[in-house]
Amino acid sequence: MGLSERIGRIKPSPTLAVSAKAKAMKAQGIDVVSFGAGEPDFDTPRHIKEAAIQAIRDGFTKYTPASGIDELKVAVCEKFARDNGLTFDKSQVVISCGGKHAFYNLAQVLLDPGDEAIIPAPYWVSYPDMVRLAGGTPVIVETHEENGFKLTPDQLDAALTDKTKIVVINSPSNPTGAAYTKEELKALSEVILTYPNAHVISDEIYEKIVYDGYTFTSIANCGEDILGRTVIIHGVSKTYAMTGWRIGFTAGDTGIIKAVSMLQSQSTSNPTSIAQKAAVAALKGPQEPVDEMVRAFHERRDYAISRLNGMEGVTCFTPHGAFYAFPNLNAYMGKTYKNTRIDSGFDLAAYLLDEARVAVVPGDAFGKKGYLRLSFATSMEEIKKGLDRIEEGLGKLKG
Ligand SMILES: Cc1ncc(COP(=O)(O)O)c(C=O)c1O
Question: Is the pTM here over 0.85, yes or no?
Fold first, then answer.
């Protein structure tokens, strides 16, 4: 069957592919340690599950407005007021099927062919493909470990053109864990404001998963002008261990929100009614389970980063947020094992899966060569076992 030209512009998500391969190996009885997961290994807190069960019992099982229920939109507005000092009216909020859907929708309503979207690399794997699918052109700007994997105002200035429609800011970042300070965001916002067509999509999905007393700031906090140009995407997936529930949200300009709501009304309709009720409970209920999860991630991060930095030829940036380590393994490029040469992160990840039984995601998938992404959203025991295997596996490479 002839498929559309449009679908030919994208490829399957490499992160989901790694997790699927590790799961398939496990199902065959192979003992694989998986560092592939992009989701907390904790269960959804009980009070959130109870709210969903109650919604089912109450018969809250029918269509809702396509843009989501008012109760959840109000809870989202309260969250932004409480946590971020940002005032949004519920007409400025739309509920979608996860943060991914939120970004997808924005790309669809903002981009025309020829429009450019600036995406700092390393980037979350889905941004460039969702931009391409919408007909836009991803403009990848490579950030460097020396700058803490952050975009500098000069780099941004050099990338911006009259065609720039979107600048993507993802702080804390997947895959590096880099998190911008308010001063850094302010400097970026000043550059963006010199281009009247440029909007910011601020992906704040890892807001709550931060370490070392880092205080989260949104670029929308950097003044009225940039607030007017910023659309925030967020959701309950990572904060409340709710990846399977598929609830994300978008907040910003009323015209953009209206367009997204219309798009949903002609595509997905509403996100699941029951999951919306669960998300209300997540946002309005006790936040202690989040603190507990972050404490566990913090401990694992400290262990994983120090182990990685202790390995021969490996250096690893200390992430300030999210739950990923992004070690630099360039020292291993060009090495060999049994006549197989390691020339990329893809080769190294394949070698580690086949020989060391450890699943990691190649940095190449995030637009950075010579790096790997390891999720520490898995138990300390698995982290120890997996890192032992990686160290041993790297030690076998020659050259
Ligand atoms: C940076 C970033 N944004 C958005 C998402 C989407 O999350 P979800 O669609 O599960 O809410 C993810 C998930 O991996 C992510 O890492």
Answer: yes
